[in-house]
Amino acid sequence: MTTSTKTARRGEHGKDHRPTRRRAGPAPVARGVWPLMLPAVIVTGFLVILPVLYTVWLSVSDRRPDGSNSGFVGWANFSRMLDDPLFWNSVRVTLFLFVVCLVVETLLGLALGYLLSIDVPGRRIFQGLMLIPAITASVAVALVWLLIYDPSLGAANQILDAVGIDPVVWLGDPNIAPWSIAIVDIWQWTPFMALIIAAGIRSLPSDPFEAASIDGASNWRKARHVGLPLLMPVISVAVLLRTVDLVRFFDTVYVMTQGGPVNSTNTLNVYGYRTAFIDQQASYAAALQLSLLVLVVAIAGLFTWWRRRQTIEY
């Protein structure tokens, strides 16, 4: 490079005006923003941080049913939890419902979302009707499905009887009850997944599909190799939202079975509730709920990492 070229790149004061790369990172927060954020920080501290700290204190102490506390007991509650077969059963039930519901809701939501993305007359009305299960209170949904699963008068057994199948004790059989709970959650939340995915499909760019058509790709190849990769960030958001809810499974299970029969639907959240308010063992229940918190953070963190990876790749 000649001297004249170097001089041209530098200003008249000798400064180098070549563009420099800036590291990607969070934008600095203006000082004037902190007073506006302070009320939200205080409310978050009272509603989130203080209860968590109190739960930690309960888990390492011995809170008795009469309200007295014998003081610090260390890791005794956690050691008891590791030797508790009901704890491991509740973890197994929680993970079973989590995997079954998440996989089925994602696959059905993907198929239904594609159908909802097609412009047909009355599509918006149909979308609004589909959202009704998701916006209905879970307790109300559980009560309705209790009637559907009724052994003698329920619609489920009447349908089975109409096609020549023997009646099923939906919530009384330990082998069938977890699947019955999963069906309720799938019915309630698949439309939610479908609406998110349908919105993502409608926002996809058309240029990659047109290029694939010019190259002679079939509809299946365009969906598999073009549409699905572009849709992965949207799917990951929907999966993350359902993940947090599914791991904390409580209201539907408690209303329908209260963890029975024979603890076959006893999720970790239900077990912690029963331990605290029925067995009156607050300290042990606090340890159980902290284990649930760790499980939620671990699974949500895993899916968040996966979502960021999908965003970077696509």
From TrEMBL:
Region of interest (Disordered), ranges: 1-26
Keyword Membrane attached: yes
Transmembrane residue ranges: 32-57, 95-116, 128-148, 186-205, 226-244, 284-306
Listed CDD domains: TM_PBP2 (cd06261)
Pfam families (alphabetical): BPD_transp_1 (PF00528)
Its membrane topology: Multi-pass membrane protein
Keywords: Cell membrane, Membrane, Transmembrane, Transmembrane helix, Transport
UniProt similarity note: Belongs to the binding-protein-dependent transport system permease family.
PANTHER family: ABC TRANSPORTER PERMEASE PROTEIN (PTHR30193), INNER MEMBRANE ABC TRANSPORTER PERMEASE PROTEIN YCJO (PTHR30193:SF37)
Name of the protein: Sugar ABC transporter permease
Species whose genome carries this gene: Phytoactinopolyspora alkaliphila
Phylogenetic classification of the source organism: Bacteria, Bacillati, Actinomycetota, Actinomycetes, Jiangellales
